[in-house]
Amino acid sequence: VLRQASALLRQESQGLRELNQRLVDEVDERRRVEEELRNAQMRLARSSRLAAVGQMSAAVAHELNQPLAALRMFVAGARKLLESGNVPAVEDNLKEIDSLQHRMATLTQELKRFARPAESRIEVVDLRTSIAAAEKIARSRFEEDGVKLHLRLPDEPLNLETAPLKVEQVLVNLLRNGADSAAKAEAGEVILETGRQGESVVVSVSDNGSGVPVDLREKIFDPFFTTKLSNGGLGLGLSISDRIAEDLGGSLQVKPSASGGATFVFTLPAPEGAERDATPRAETAVLEPEVE
Predict the structure, then answer these.
(1) CA within 13 Å, CB half, 76
(2) Per the structure, how many domains does the chain have?
(3) Domain that holds residue 168
């Protein structure tokens, strides 16, 4: 009996030693896996930072290219006006150029905070004023493509409390996108309409281009997705606009237009509390009812 008990004890001891060794091996394996995981996370973080830098660089190039195009237009106009001796008109063009360089400087600061858009300055603004500023920036694209732009706006102010520069970024992107699409039509035109819907302000930008296929409507707001590679499109305009709309508490959607093209619907919250007077901004233009 004693020998049997001793043998059983040796067996149990051997079993415990094997179990202990397995536990030690499992702990070592877990440590190895954790070390590999940490290294993989470090590599992923490094790659993410590089990707973020690349995306930011592309975003800067994309957004600055818009006012640069307008600058070229005003500089060319100033040269012609100087040749004709029209000094007052040259001074007006210089004011526009100064306004654009101010916008570009402000825009670079905004793009630095692309990942933290909530830091943008919030103020009460008449949306019609933001539309005027956006139209001024996008005007050169419409002239180059021979596309007509119609602005259908209400007579009364559309005051809302928001980040005006970001709103203008979205509007410029939508206008230029509409001009690109409508340029393919025989008589291209873009219609911008806006008005109130409950406690929201809605801006719709419609074109008579070829429209957005159903299977692309989900992808069109993805970063770097573009159907305009031949035009140097980076696929960031709509992605940036979609993110800005979301960060401002609104939304951006696409649907077919009545003319067979696309309509982009930009919705912003405009509660009754924003119905006080909007503060005028020196860098914006006086809005004209319609641009042909």
Answers:
(1) 7
(2) 1
(3) 123-274
The 10s digit of each residue's pLDDT in 66-108 is 788 888 888 888 898 888 889 888 888 888 888 888 777 766 6
Q: In what order do the strands lie in the sheet with 148-152?
A: 148-152, 189-197, 200-207, 262-269, 251-256
Domain contains 21: no
Distance of CA 247 to the CA centre of its chain: 10
Block residue for tokens 């993805």 = 222
Q: Residue 153 in 3-state DSSP?
A: coil
Q: Give domain status of residue 115, yes or no.
A: no
Residue 288 forms part of a structural domain: no
In-domain check, residue 40: no
CATH number for position 231: 3.30.565.10
Q: Residue 189: helix, strand or coil by DSSP?
A: strand
Cβ-proximal residues to 185 (8 Å cutoff; 6+ apart), any chain = 207, 208, 209, 261
pLDDT per residue over 125-171, tens digit each? Answer: 999 999 999 999 899 889 888 999 999 999 999 999 998 988 998 99
What residues contact residue 66 under an 8 Å CB cut-off, 6+ apart?
Answer: 137, 138, 172, 176
The 8 Å CB, 24+ separation contacts for 101-110 are 101/71, 102/283, 103/67, 103/137, 103/165, 103/283, 104/64, 104/67, 104/68, 106/165, 107/63, 107/64, 107/67, 107/165, 107/169, 108/60, 108/64, 110/165, 110/166, 110/169
- Output phi, psi for 254, to 5 deg: -125, 145
The tokens 């801006």 sit on which residue?
A: 203
